[in-house]
UniProtKB/TrEMBL annotation:
<dbReference type="InterPro" id="IPR029058">
    <property type="entry name" value="AB_hydrolase_fold"/>
</dbReference>
<keyword id="KW-0378">Hydrolase</keyword>
<dbReference type="GO" id="GO:0016787">
    <property type="term" value="F:hydrolase activity"/>
</dbReference>
<dbReference type="GO" id="GO:0016020">
    <property type="term" value="C:membrane"/>
</dbReference>
<dbReference type="InterPro" id="IPR000073">
    <property type="entry name" value="AB_hydrolase_1"/>
</dbReference>
<dbReference type="InterPro" id="IPR050266">
    <property type="entry name" value="AB_hydrolase_sf"/>
</dbReference>
<protein>
    <submittedName>
        <fullName>Pimeloyl-ACP methyl ester carboxylesterase</fullName>
    </submittedName>
</protein>
<feature type="domain" description="AB hydrolase-1">
    <location>
        <begin position="32"/>
        <end position="290"/>
    </location>
</feature>
<dbReference type="Pfam" id="PF12697">
    <property type="entry name" value="Abhydrolase_6"/>
</dbReference>
Length: 315
């Protein structure tokens, strides 16, 4: 689909790669998936288990339509100037995607569930705060309180994308992770594997200096306090970016997540799921099917009562 980074009538149009998967039975609900920094759509379409199902396949099997994209600057999508690709402009792009799944360009869906991972979750919070056009948000790999030392370590492991043979010729201001660093950043090896770390290294994508600057807003509750739709927080219990008991960032239970975040989501009906033996990149762990089922179970409750065995209510 074609999108712009802002509402200016003269704004250039960019091509964003997108894929819509539908279940065998008709559905009026679609999950729209946004991956995190240095990931593209493959975060959602890669299975952690040989012959297993990816997140997208699990969601379709549960009866949901799924739309996943390569965010601008990643994968098969166009690469605008790096300084223009930030959380505000990407929220505007996400708003255009939501409109497309409602008005027939990418389907006719009544219920839109925004699902994000890490920076993708951040985009959805900004989008929903600004436009209030999604029916619920599942925010994975995202909390307001991040470990500053882990954040600094993650930044230090970024370098110009053009310095990586996989991204030779990338425009100025595009970034990716240094070779051999994703395991320590995004994986918890007892719950992941060296095979999955190697796979993650092979399928890494790019980010921009605009996105990197946007990360400073992750601690700002100004966006989440404006949300009024149901929200699910889903986090791995060994997420190196957000879990550090010595720094007061407890991740021992879903109750800990509620205690940390419960006052920061305004009028939203907040629930939390803690996924055991899991690091930051949840779909790259053996627990990925459990996490996918937890989101699907929770999504069934957004219109009324339902069974959510893994989710704890924070309200």
């Amino acid at each position: 689909m074609n999108v712009t980074l802002n509402g200016d009538m003269l704004a250039p149009h960019y091509r964003m790669a997108s894929w819509l998967c539908t279940p065998d039975r008709p559905t009026r609900t679609v999950q729209v998936l946004l991956a995190g920094l240095t990931y593209d759509h493959r975060y959602w379409t890669t299975s952690a288990r040989p012959a297993g199902r990816s997140y997208a396949q699990e969601a379709v099997a549960a009866g949901y339509a799924v739309l996943y994209v390569d965010r601008l600057g990643t994968g098969r999508s166009d690469r605008p100037p790096a300084g223009e690709v930030d959380v505000v402009s990407e929220a505007y792009v996400a708003h255009q995607v939501v409109a497309a799944v409602r008005d027939g360009r990418l389907g006719w869906y009544e219920t839109v569930i925004a699902v994000g991972h890490s920076y993708g979750s951040m985009i959805w919070t900004v989008e929903a705060a600004a436009y209030d056009d999604v029916d619920a948000l599942a925010l994975t790999g995202y909390m307001h309180g991040a470990d500053p030392l882990a954040q600094e370590a993650a930044r230090a492991r970024l370098h110009p994308a053009a310095a990586d043979p996989a991204f030779a010729g990338s425009p100025d201001g595009y970034l990716t992770t240094m070779p051999g660093t994703r395991g320590a950043l995004f994986h918890y090896l007892p719950g992941s594997s060296r095979r999955l770390v190697a796979l993650d290294e092979r399928m890494k994508s790019t980010g921009t200096i605009g996105e990197l600057a946007s990360l400073a807003a992750i601690a700002d509750p100004g966006y989440t306090r404006r949300l009024r739709r149901p929200v699910l927080l889903l986090l791995g219990d060994h997420d190196a970016l957000f879990c550090n008991p010595r720094a007061g960032l407890r991740c021992g239970s879903a109750a800990d997540l509620c205690a940390r975040e419960g006052t920061l989501f305004g009028r939203a009906r907040l629930s939390a799921v803690l996924v055991k033996d899991t690091g930051h990149s949840i779909t790259m762990h053996q627990s990925a099917p459990r996490a996918a089922r937890a989101i699907s179970d929770w999504a069934r409750t957004i219109r009324g009562p339902g069974r959510t065995p893994d989710a704890r209510s924070c309200t």
